[in-house]
Design a protein that fits this description.
The complex is a heterodimer of chains A (111) and B (112). By secondary structure, chain A is an all-beta fold. In chain A, 0% of the residues lie in helices and 52% in strands. In chain A, the strands form two sheets. In chain A, strands 2, 4, 5, 6, 9, 10 and 11 form a seven-stranded mixed β-sheet that branches. In chain B, a hairpin with a 6-residue loop joins strand 4 and strand 5. Classes of the chains: A mainly beta (111), B mainly beta (112).
Chain lengths: 111, 112
């Protein structure tokens, strides 16, 4: 089992460019999450998907969109990147509960 | 005031010491209290969790919840250099979407 995988691992964007972060899980989990992690801020929830076909905003959704493509895959899109979106992005999944399993992260720099 | 407060450290202790890591919270609706460990440049991994009050032990690790004081602790006995990491607490209520509220993490350094 690969668990939760994320691509790419690293990315550098210029302000205004767009990109999609990919996430996939092979644990047959219903719920999936996108977080960002900034120094001193802990993990902040951007969007989540409680089940296939549903998505909801988290604490910091502005500037992002998501797609729950199927049960396995949950993507995060930045339509017009800004320097404030420089961060480490983590995808996580869980079955019914608070036990979340995380991917290795994507380090994004926006210049 | 943040819902979950955690001292960022770093906390540096000698190998073999007992480590105490703590979080305070303000929302009395929290029922699930999680501890995650995050090694440098890796994703968080679930270490252990407790539901409601009480203690839970798993090997060298003990999680403790004091709901009356809104205070949770993680104790590490016989600490090892491999325990050096950032420890994140996270808490959840009884909502059906299983959202967690996270502390900022405490960086722990175990000196050989």
């Amino acid at each position: 089992n690969a668990g939760v995988t994320q691509t790419p691992k690293f990315q550098v964007l210029k302000t205004g460019q767009s990109m999609t972060l990919q996430c996939a899980q092979d644990m047959n989990h219903n719920s999936m999450y996108w977080y960002r992690q900034d120094p001193g801020m802990g993990l902040r929830l951007i969007y989540y998907s409680a089940s296939e076909g549903t998505t909801d905003k988290g604490e910091v959704p502005n500037g992002y969109n998501v797609s729950r493509l199927n049960k396995r895959e949950f993507s995060l899109r930045l339509e017009s990147a800004a320097p404030s979106q420089t961060s480490v992005y983590f995808c996580a999944s869980s079955e019914y509960g608070y036990e979340q399993y995380f991917g290795p992260g994507t380090r994004l720099t926006v210049t | 005031q943040k819902e979950v407060e955690q001292d960022p450290g770093p906390l540096s202790v000698p190998e073999g010491a007992i480590v105490s890591l703590n979080c305070t919270y303000s929302n009395s609706a929290f029922q699930y209290f999680m501890w995650y460990r995050q090694y440098s440049r890796k994703g968080p991994e679930l270490l252990m969790y407790t539901y409601s009050s009480g203690n839970k032990e798993d090997g060298r690790f003990t999680a403790q919840v004091d709901k009356s004081s809104k205070y949770i602790s993680l104790f590490i006995r016989d600490s090892q250099p491999s325990d050096s990491a950032t420890y994140l607490c996270a808490m959840g209520g009884s909502d059906s979407n299983y959202q967690l509220i996270w502390g900022a993490g405490t960086k722990l350094i175990i000196k050989p």
